[in-house]
Amino acid sequence: MIPRLLHPFAKPAKDRDDFRELVRAEGVRVWDSTGKEYIDGLGSLWYCQVGYGRAEIIEAVEKQMQELVYNLFDPWASPVSEAAAERIADLSPLDEARVFLCCSGSEAVDSAFKIARLTAQLREQPDRQIMLRRGRGYHGVNTAGTSLQGIAPNRENWGDLVPHVLEIDPDDIESAARVFAEHGDNIAGVICEPVQGAGGVHPPTDDYLRRLREMCTASGALLIFDEVICGFGRTGSWFGAQTFGVTPDLMTFAKGVTSGYQPVGGVIVSRAVCATLEADADFLFRHGFTYSGHPAGCAAALANIDIIEREGLVARADEIGERFAAGLAALAADGSLATYRGIGAVWAAQMPDGTEPAQTVAVRDAMLDAGVICRPIGTSLGFCPPLVIDDADIDLMLDVLATALA
Ligand SMILES: Cc1ncc(COP(=O)(O)O)c(C=O)c1O
Q1: Three-state DSSP class for residue 341
Q2: pTM above 0.90, yes or no
Q3: Separation between Cα atoms, residue 72 and residue 296, nearest integer Å
Q4: Distance separating alpha carbons of residues 278 and 271, to the nearest angstrom
Q5: What is the residue-wise DSSP string for 180-230?
Q6: CATH code 3.40.640.10 region(s) in the chain
């Protein structure tokens, strides 16, 4: 039977019985409707930093919903939304930044895209419209994000996309240098994940991010870091920008900001861009969503950030990384894997050369049957566990991976 729900990123013709129905979650584990237990090696979809069933977040959301849920279009404000914006801005490397809020990573990306173009228009550079995307990049599925992503199949079949988008090589920074040399004066911005996630977990090659920063600064383009996966501790710092020591002009976030307890995303906007937006007291920022700054979402974000801070989860990401790297290195050494990639608590295991994507899915399915969730990406398997995972569960996941590969 075909499900009534048209599932995201799934084949519409897939039978309802072929989905695994999840009904409960606690800590780093989830259970399906047959009672089967899984360790969640993907933090749901790269987002659950603090684990499931955290009463503190649930109670904060409930309390906020009982007190007030209201929009923030002018003239309204909310103390919890202002507090969340301040907290997020203070954790970021951007001094005196402001935070625009929305409900997803895709909304965050499309907002950052519009802010980058808007900044050029307000700075009286109307021809500065080009946006650079990076091969393999994933930036969500809204119109700008679809146009900006470097995963070609995701751009197909939607008709015409946003114009003035050029692609740079994901690893060879000289390709960006060539595009800047030719189009520098017309580039509004570049969007780039510090560590590419959905494209297969690719940390940046040496100097890539720093050189991109230099090119943007020299040409007057904005550097946008899409921190939707990297943000909130995943790479061993609050943001990937800090892990790699490169400061962008705009930063998008979502996922880990609430660990998924509420749908929240946003854009951290640097002081220089804010100065442009604030310059004319009569200028109206004609962008915003009904649920921008939703108080219940902001309550979830604050409670989630409290937990990340109190439990030292940002530092824990690096410990998780050391254990993952050691386990994956052993599998690569014995030929079970071709290689592995990652940093902090986000990793990919690269299947041996000659493996087909379908075989990679089969390995994933075997792991699901053995009670471990990971994500097939082409011919690699992605891991992004909750930052509260303990060493025993990391070892268990690696054991299940080893058995499935064998
Ligand atoms: C880097 C990045 N940007 C944007 C998105 C889109 O986020 P969402 O699915 O919340 O719209 C994702 C989702 O995985 C992502 O990884």
Answers
A1: strand
A2: yes
A3: 13
A4: 10
A5: HHHHGGGEEEEEE-SSB-TTT-BPPPTTHHHHHHHHHHHHTPEEEEE-TTT
A6: 56-310
Q: Which atom of ligand 1 is nearest to the CA of 45?
A: 14
Give the position, in ligand 1's atom list, of the atom nearest the Cα of 255. Answer: 10
Structural domain 16-53+312-405, CATH architecture:
Alpha-Beta Complex (3.90)
Per-residue pLDDT tens for 202-248? 999 999 999 999 999 999 999 999 999 999 999 999 999 999 999 99
Question: Contact 108/228 with Cβ under 8 angstroms?
Answer: yes
DSSP letters, 153-183, are GGGTTS-S--SSEEEE-SS-HHHHHHHHHHH
User: What is the CATH code of the structural domain delimited by 56-310?
Assistant: 3.40.640.10
Which protein residues are within 6 Å of ligand 1, measured from CB? 46, 104-106, 109, 138-140, 193, 197-198, 226, 228-229, 254
CATH 3.90.1150.10, the chain: domain bounds: 16-53+312-405
Q: What is the pLDDT of residues 129-163, one digit of tens each?
A: 999 999 999 999 999 999 999 999 999 999 999 99
Q: Please report how the helices 208-219 and 173-183 are oriented relative to each other, as an axis angle in degrees rounded to 10.
A: 10
Ligand 1 test: best mutation among 228, 253, 346, most atoms within 8 Å of CB? Answer: 228
